[in-house]
Amino acid sequence: MTSIGTGYDLSVSTYSPDGRVFQVEYAQKAVDNSGTAVGLRVKDGVVLAVEKIKHSRLLVPHANRRIMTASKHIGVATAGWISDTRHLVKRVRDEARDYRSTYKVEIPAKIIAERMGMYAQAYTLYSAVRPFGVSTIIGTVDADGPQLYMIEPSGQYVGYRGCAAGKGKQVAKTEIEKLNLDQMTAREAIKEAARIIYAAHDDSKDKLFELELSWVCAESNGLHMHVPQDLFDEAIQHAERSLNDDDDDDEMEGDDE
Amino acid sequence: MFRNNYDNDASTWSPQGRIFQVEYASEAVKQGSAVVGLKSKEHVVLVAVKRSPNELASYQKKIVRIDDHMGIAMAGLTSDARVLSNYLRSEAMRSKMIYGRALPVGRAVNAIGDKAQTNTQEYGRRPYGVGLLVIGQDDTGPHLYEFSPSGIVSEYYAYSIGARSQSARTNLERNYEKFEDMSLQELVVHGLRALRDTLQQGKQLDTLNTSIGFVGKDTKMTILDGENTQAYLDLLDEGEAMETE
Question: What EC numbers are recorded for this enzyme (chain A) (predicted)?
Answer without folding.
Answer: 3.4.25.1
